[in-house]
Amino acid sequence: MKNWLKFLGVLLVLYSIAGGLLLQVPRLPILHETIRNLYFHVTMWFAMMAVFIASMYGSIRFLGSSDMKHDILAVESARVGMIFGILGLLTGMVWANYTWGAPWVNDAKLNGAAGTMLVYAAYFLLRNSVDDEQKKARISAVYNIFALVMMFVFIMVLPRMVDSLHPGNGGNPGFGTYDLDKVMRLVFYPAVVGWIIIAGWIINIRIRMQKVKELVFG
Amino acid sequence: MKNKKTLISFLLMLLCPALLTQAQDVEMADAMRDNGKIYVVVAVMLIIFAGLALYLFLIDRKVSRLEKEIKNRTKGL
After folding, report:
1. Which of A17, A21, A212 comes nearest B66 by C-beta?
2. Do residue B63 and residue A208 have CB atoms under 8 angstroms apart?
3. How large a percentage of chain A has pLDDT more than 70?
4. B70 and A21: CB-CB below 8 Å?
5. Contact residues, chain B, for A218 at CB < 8 Å
6. For residue range A197-207, what is the model confidence (pLDDT) as tens digits?
7. Facing residue for A21 by CB, picked from B41, B49, B74
8. Mean pLDDT of A16-32
9. How many degrees, rounded to 5, is the angle at CA A193 between CA A187 and CA A195?
10. What rounded mean pLDDT belongs to chain A?
11. Is residue A71 a part of any domain in this protein?
12. For residue B60, what are the CA distances in angstroms to A1, A136, A213?
């Protein structure tokens, strides 16, 4: 991964932290200043989605090539995706506690996010249950494709179809084209790009670590 | 008729301040911004993230060195 890209990612996130706290935001009831969580909580989910897409890309390539390097990409991306997803869940729970009054509510988006985490946890369980490397990679690659589809169904499709407290679903104003404030966009988009780059960097290091491990221990 | 119109317009105008102050009525952290303490928060968060980025950079460098070392050893063979 090019060094300048890593610096860019770090810079963008640093900018989103400073701008996120200092720049102007809409004054909305219930949310108050917590609206700034957009730059941190939501970016976790965007990074997770980008990373899981990368994971599926690895799985699909592996199914075509049977080259273990694609499988390594698939599994390490899934690992980092889980980390970002868990961070998204935790930050969401803190945010919910102070805006909705409870860290968890029976809501389609929240249940969908938790469900996505379970789906990918099952991916790792599946891998652990198979010993042979090629078989492990092949079976989990097929599962990964379904996992990604389920992720989109759980967190993007279903929540939009039912009533929801969560912004962006159930008729609530979300952070889409018409709802996102001009100034917020200035921080939000760079933040998303920055965190995706950081996630990519972490995956890059992990993949190289795995390759080194393989070379040393065989 | 004219008096009724002016009366109604006047009453409606009385509502205006109430509608305008709605934006100001939402509590925000203006105090933090006014007394400059918000910069402390920003500084803390920047330090935390910069520290994490530094850690990422350090382990990246360690892996690069391991890769180079392996390359050198296998070349030697």
Report:
1. A212
2. yes
3. 95
4. no
5. none
6. 999 999 999 99
7. B41
8. 87
9. 95
10. 91
11. yes
12. 10, 28, 15
Instruction: Tell whether the model's pLDDT for residue B17 goes beyond 60.
Output: no
Question: How many residues comprise chain A?
Answer: 218
A106 located within any domain:
yes
Q: Looking at residues A71-90, what average pLDDT do you find?
A: 96
| Higher pLDDT pick, B9 / B15 | B9
Q: How many domains does chain A have?
A: 1
Residue A26, in any domain of the structure: no
The type of residue at A121 is A
Domain boundaries, chain B: 2-76
d(CA A43, CA A37): 9
Structural domain contains residue A25:
no
Domain that holds residue A159: 3-19+31-217
Model pTM score:
0.85
Among A44, A129, A152, which Cα is nearest to A94's? A44
Interface list for chain A against chain B, based on CB atoms closer than 8 Å = 6, 10, 13-14, 17-18, 21-22, 27-29, 32-33, 198, 201-202, 204-205, 208-209, 211-212, 215-216
Q: Which residue has the tokens 């989103």?
A: A16
- The DSSP element (H or E) to which A127 belongs, if any, is helix A108-129
For residue A119, give the DSSP letter. H
